[in-house]
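Reopening this ticket.

The earlier resolution said the output was attached, but the attachment link was broken on my side. Pasting everything inline this time so it's all in one place.
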Amino acid sequence: MRKLTIFFTLLFALFITSSVDAQRSRRKAKARVHRVIKHRKSKKAGRIKRVKPKPPTIHENPYRLCEDTCSHIHGIDMSHYQGEVFWDAIGHHSGISYVYLKATEGSDRIDSRYEQNIFMAHQRGIKVGSYHFFRPKTDLSLQLDNFRTQCLAAEQDLIPMLDVESTGGMGREEFCDSLLKFLKYMEDAYHQKPLIYTGRNFYNKYLIGKLNDYHLMIAMYTDEEPILADERDICLWQYTGRGTVRGVRGHIDKSRFMGNHTLDDLKFIR
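Inline output:
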């Protein structure tokens, strides 16, 4: 009887021990599951949503060519500052449709590379226009004569352009009077109104309400299109002064047509 009692006691103890071990195993397994779930939730909560980065703009990366990524009509303007230009490379660059070349400045300055540049641009099939840098305090008749010696009507595809960037120290009314007189001289000489190049801030300060009958090329080096204070129409936007073009060493001014404007709007009429 004693032996039987000892046997059942040992059997009961073994049962209790097995039950305790099973409970411990279940608790450990449950704890592991909770840790895994908690870790996954923590990882998910701390995960940063990846946003596809925007490509750099032409002002953040001057080697990104706007004309390679859009459908606008693009062009350049240049002078002797660009030095020797490899026109073959520019001619094969289909993104450049036109060029405005500096011809003259004031009453006696002639751009040293104008004749070569206009000849080579025509040879490569690029539409060409010529511009004069305006000096408001310099004799207007002498300025016109200087420009006419270089800007020959037979060599122009596009209307002449007047570069207006300085008042020459004149007051607004005196400056505008000089400018409008010279524009009339140009119109009489070429039988069409010239294109006006100026900066957005310069226009807003000095030219509002003075040039309503003229096409404008507005310089503003930002990623947003320019809007003038009087909200008038803009034909061309010079969007960078640090552009790059195959065939030109260093930086160059680049522009494009705005809205529905095209090269036909600037066609030189003979």
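Reporter confirms the inline version is readable. DSSP finds six helices and nine strands in the chain. Residues 2-46 form the longest helix (45 residues).
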